[in-house]
C-alpha cells in the first residue's frame, strides 16, 4: 500500500523488508521457515556439545556448525538493521534484543572462553521461534491464548498469592514437626518440599516420616489435587467467553518499530507515532 | 461523606482511619504497600534464621530486624485499635486476631525461649497479605474466586467424601495385599500411600512390589488421573456461569467492624448495625 | 401421604420407617447423623488396630469397641428388615448388601480367626456414608456429579481405551528399548511404568536410563500432561450445560425396594412395580 | 438397500460384507465383539510371554495360542480382502495396514527368530480395538473427542512450542547451575529433568541440591502446576461450544473404501466416488 510507506522505502528495501519481517508473501514465508530450522539446528548443536561422549568425538564439527550459524544470524541481524526504517527503535525492542543476543555470545566466547552462562544466552535464541506465529493459521491462535491469560492475570495473581502463603505456612509447620533429622533442615527447604508436594510433583528426595507429618502431607496433597481446579477453571471460563474484538486487526505490525496490538481504528503507531 | 460518620469521628481520627483501613486515597494505598513489604521482609527474616549457616553468621542482625518489625507491627496494631470506633469488635474479628498474632509471638519468646511453634505463628502474619486484595483491581477478582468456591462447596464436599472413602478402602486392600515387609506396615500408612498415589504426587518412599499390588496401584492411578476432572469441571462450570450481582458494591467496608459483603441496597452494616 | 401407603404400614412401623430410611424429619436426620458417626468411629477403630504399637497397648479396648459397633449395626440391620415392607427386595438391593456386610465380618472372625480380607470388608461399611447424601443440601449436588459422569460415560470409555492402548504400546516399546537390567523386566511391568508416568504419578522405582528411553519417556510425559485436558474438558463441558430435568423429583424413593431415579411422571416403581 | 449396491455385490458377498465390516446387524455386532476379545486375548498372550516365570512354565502353550490367533487374524484379513470390492484401496488404507501388521510379525518370526521389535508390532494390533467405536453408542462420542482435539490443534501446537522452549531454556540454566556432579550431566539430561518436573511427574532420579537450583525448580513446578490450565481450558472451551453438524450422519461408511465423514447430503463417497 502506497500510503503506508514513505517514498524512500520503495524498491529493493521495501521488498527485502517484506521478505525478512513479514510472512504474507511466499518468499517471506520461506525465509521464516528457513530461519526456524536454523534456530532449531543451532540449539541442537549447543545441546549435543554438552554431552561429553558426543563432544569428545564430534566436538570439532559442532563448533564449526555453531560458527556457521552465528555468521548466518549475524548477517540476518545486519540485514534487519539495514532494512528497517528506524534501526534504533528496532534494536531496543524486545524482539530486537533477542535477535542481538542470538549473535553475540559466540563472538564473546572468543575473548572469554569457558563462561558457562553464555550457554544459556545461546539457547535464548529459541525465543525467536515465536516469530513463526506470524505465519498464517497461528496468528489468531497464539493471540487467543495470550489474550485469555492476560484477561485472567489478576485472578491468577490472587491464586498464586494464596498458594505461596499456604506453602510458606505449611512448610514452616513441617519444619517444626519433622525437624532436621528427616531432611527438613530449614524453613526454605521445607517450603521447597511443600511446593514439590502441593504441585503433585513428588520427587521423594524429602518425604515425611512421622505420623503427624504424613497426616499434614496428606492434607496438603488433597488440597493440591483439589485447588488445581482453580486456575483451570479461571482459564476455561475465560476461554469459553466469546472474544470481544476481531482478532484480524492484530496482524498490523508497525513498519518502523515492529509494535503490534494496535487498536482497530488506530491510524498511527502507539509506540513510535509512525503512520500505520 | 458526612452521613457515613458520627460527629465524634471527624478530624485526624477520620483521616488516620482512611489511611490505615482503606485503600482509595494515595496515602491509604502507600500505607498498604509499605505494610505488605514489612510483612514479606519479616517473614523472610524468620525463614533465613532457620538456615543454620546463615544463622551462624547473620543471626544477630536477623534478630534485630525481627525486633524492629515486631515494634512496627505493635505500633500499627495499637494505631488500629485507637482509630477504629469499636476496638473490641475489631479485636475479635478474624483480621483483628491475625493482626494481634503477628505481634505477640516475638514478645512471648522473651519469656519462653525456644518454643518452636512460635515460628509457625510468626508466619501466620502472611495471612495479612490478603488485606492487599482491597487494592483496586484485585477486589473483584478475589471475590470472584471465593464466590465460585463457595457456590461449589457442597459439590466439593461430596467429591472429597468419595475420594476419602476410595482411599480408605484401597489403602486397606493394599495393606492386606502387600503387607508390612513392603512398607505397608499399617492401614493408616497404606492410606497415606493411597493418597500419595491418587493425587499423582508419587513420592516413591512406599511403592507396591507384588503383581497384584501393582495392578491395583495402576487402577488407582488411572482413577486419580480421570477423577481430577470432577473438581475441575465443578469449578469451571461455576466460573463460566454469569455472576448474579454486580461486583462493584462489594467494596463497601463497614467503618465500625470491617464487615464486607453488604447487599447493594443496604444502608446499615449487617454485622454491627452502623450506618454505612 | 395416604395413597403412598398400604393400610398395614400405618402406626409405629410407618414412623420407624421414616426415622430409619428417610431424612426429612428431625428424628430421621438425627438417626442418620448418629449412624454416620458410628460408621466413622468403627472404621477408625479398624485402622488403629492395624498399627502395631497401638494394638499392643489398646488392642483389648479396640476389640471391645469393634464388638459394640457390630452389635449396634446388627440391631440397625434387623430394624431395617422389620420396618421395610419387602425385606427380601431390600436385602438384595445394593444398599441392603452393604448394610449386611458391615455386620457379618466381625461375626465370622469368631469362627475363622486371622483372615485378613475381612479387614477390607469391614471398611466397606464406609460406603454407607453415601446414605448421608440423602441429607438436605447434598441431594442435588451428589445427583449433579453422578448425572454429569453418567452422561459422559461413553466419552470417558473411549478416552480410557485410548489411554490403555497407548500405555500398552509404549510399555512394550520401553521393554524392548530398556530391557531387564534397567528394571523393565517384563511387558506388564513396563506397562505399569507407563501408567505411573502417563498419569504423572512418577514413583521413580523404575525410571529409564538410556537416551532413547528417556526421550520416549519425555514424549509420554508431555502427552500425559496434555491429554489430561480431555477428561477434564469432557466433564467441564457436561457440567456447564444446563440440566435437562428438575433435580427435585429424584428424591422420591420407593418405600418397598429403595429404588430411586424414577421419572417425574412415574406412578409406579420401575423396579418392583409398587405404587410410589 | 438395493440402490446402494452394484449388481455384482449381491448375494453372500453382500451379507459377508455387512457381517465383517459393519455393526448394525446382530451378526455384525457379534463378529466385532468376538474380534475384540481375540485381539485382547492375543495381546495378553504377548504380555504374559514376556514374564520370565510364566514363560518358563506356560511358554509352550502361549506360543500355541499365539499361532492360533495369528491363523485367525490371517483368515479374517483374507476374508476382508475377498469381501471388499476394491481390495487394493482397502489394503493401503490405515485400517488395512494395521489389519495386515497384526498378521505378519508372527509369520516373520519363523524366519528371523528373536527380533524384539516384532513384539511391538504385535501389540500394534491393539489399534484395531478402535474399530469397535463403530458400535452403536460410541460413534458420536469418539467423533466428538477427535473433532474437539482437531479444532484446537493449532492452539495446542502453540502451547507445546511454548512448553518446549521453556523446558529447553530452564534445562540449560539448571545444567549451568547444578552441574554434572548432581546428576545434571548434559543439557539433554537437564531438559529431561525439566520435562519430568514441569509435567509434575517427578521421578526423583535427578533432583536439584543447590539452593539456587531448588529455587528455580520451585518456580518451574508452580509454572507447570498453573499452565496445565492452558490445554485444559482450550479443550474445555472447545467441547463446550455446540457441535455444528448432527452426529448421526457420520455412521455412513463407504462400502468400497471404508471412508467415513461424509456430508449428510452426500450421495457419493468423497474418496472413491462410489455411490453411498
UniProtKB/TrEMBL annotation, chains A, B, C, D:
<keyword id="KW-0812">Transmembrane</keyword>
<feature type="domain" description="Ion transport">
    <location>
        <begin position="29"/>
        <end position="238"/>
    </location>
</feature>
<dbReference type="InterPro" id="IPR005821">
    <property type="entry name" value="Ion_trans_dom"/>
</dbReference>
<keyword id="KW-0851">Voltage-gated channel</keyword>
<keyword id="KW-0631">Potassium channel</keyword>
<protein>
    <submittedName>
        <fullName>Voltage-gated potassium channel</fullName>
    </submittedName>
</protein>
<dbReference type="GO" id="GO:0001508">
    <property type="term" value="P:action potential"/>
</dbReference>
<feature type="transmembrane region" description="Helical">
    <location>
        <begin position="60"/>
        <end position="79"/>
    </location>
</feature>
<dbReference type="InterPro" id="IPR028325">
    <property type="entry name" value="VG_K_chnl"/>
</dbReference>
<keyword id="KW-0406">Ion transport</keyword>
<feature type="transmembrane region" description="Helical">
    <location>
        <begin position="91"/>
        <end position="121"/>
    </location>
</feature>
<keyword id="KW-0813">Transport</keyword>
<feature type="transmembrane region" description="Helical">
    <location>
        <begin position="156"/>
        <end position="177"/>
    </location>
</feature>
<dbReference type="GO" id="GO:0008076">
    <property type="term" value="C:voltage-gated potassium channel complex"/>
</dbReference>
<dbReference type="InterPro" id="IPR027359">
    <property type="entry name" value="Volt_channel_dom_sf"/>
</dbReference>
<keyword id="KW-0472">Membrane</keyword>
<keyword id="KW-1133">Transmembrane helix</keyword>
<keyword id="KW-0630">Potassium</keyword>
<dbReference type="Pfam" id="PF00520">
    <property type="entry name" value="Ion_trans"/>
</dbReference>
<feature type="transmembrane region" description="Helical">
    <location>
        <begin position="216"/>
        <end position="237"/>
    </location>
</feature>
<keyword id="KW-0407">Ion channel</keyword>
<feature type="transmembrane region" description="Helical">
    <location>
        <begin position="30"/>
        <end position="48"/>
    </location>
</feature>
<dbReference type="GO" id="GO:0005249">
    <property type="term" value="F:voltage-gated potassium channel activity"/>
</dbReference>
<keyword id="KW-0633">Potassium transport</keyword>
Amino acid at each position: 500500500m502506497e500510503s503506508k510507506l514513505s517514498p524512500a522505502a520503495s524498491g529493493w528495501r521495501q521488498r527485502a523488508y517484506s521478505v525478512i519481517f513479514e510472512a504474507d508473501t511466499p518468499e517471506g514465508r520461506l525465509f521464516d521457515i528457513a530461519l526456524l530450522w536454523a534456530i532449531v539446528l543451532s540449539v541442537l548443536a549447543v545441546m549435543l556439545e554438552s554431552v561429553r561422549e558426543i563432544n569428545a568425538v564430534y566436538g570439532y564439527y559442532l563448533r564449526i556448525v555453531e560458527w556457521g550459524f552465528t555468521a548466518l544470524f549475524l548477517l540476518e541481524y545486519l540485514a534487519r538493521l539495514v532494512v528497517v526504517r528506524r534501526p534504533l527503535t528496532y534494536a531496543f525492542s524486545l524482539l530486537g534484543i533477542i535477535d542481538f543476543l542470538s549473535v553475540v555470545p559466540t563472538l564473546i566466547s572468543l575473548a572469554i572462553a569457558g563462561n558457562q552462562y553464555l550457554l544459556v544466552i545461546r539457547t535464548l535464541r529459541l525465543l525467536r521461534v515465536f516469530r513463526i506465529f506470524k505465519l498464517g493459521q497461528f496468528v489468531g491462535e497464539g493471540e487467543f491464548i495470550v489474550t485469555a491469560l492476560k484477561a485472567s492475570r489478576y485472578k491468577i495473581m490472587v491464586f498464586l498469592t494464596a498458594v505461596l502463603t499456604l506453602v510458606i505456612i505449611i512448610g514452616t509447620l513441617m519444619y517444626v514437626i519433622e525437624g532436621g533429622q528427616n531432611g527438613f533442615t530449614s524453613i526454605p527447604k521445607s517450603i521447597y518440599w511443600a511446593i514439590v508436594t502441593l504441585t503433585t510433583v513428588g520427587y521423594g528426595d524429602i518425604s515425611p516420616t512421622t505420623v503427624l507429618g504424613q497426616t499434614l502431607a496428606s492434607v496438603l496433597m488433597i488440597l493440591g489435587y483439589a485447588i488445581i481446579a482453580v486456575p483451570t477453571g479461571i482459564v476455561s471460563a475465560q476461554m469459553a467467553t466469546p472474544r470481544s474484538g476481531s482478532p484480524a486487526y492484530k496482524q498490523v505490525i508497525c513498519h518502523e518499530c515492529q509494535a503490534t496490538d494496535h487498536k482497530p481504528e488506530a491510524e498511527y503507531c502507539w509506540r513510535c507515532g509512525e503512520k500505520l
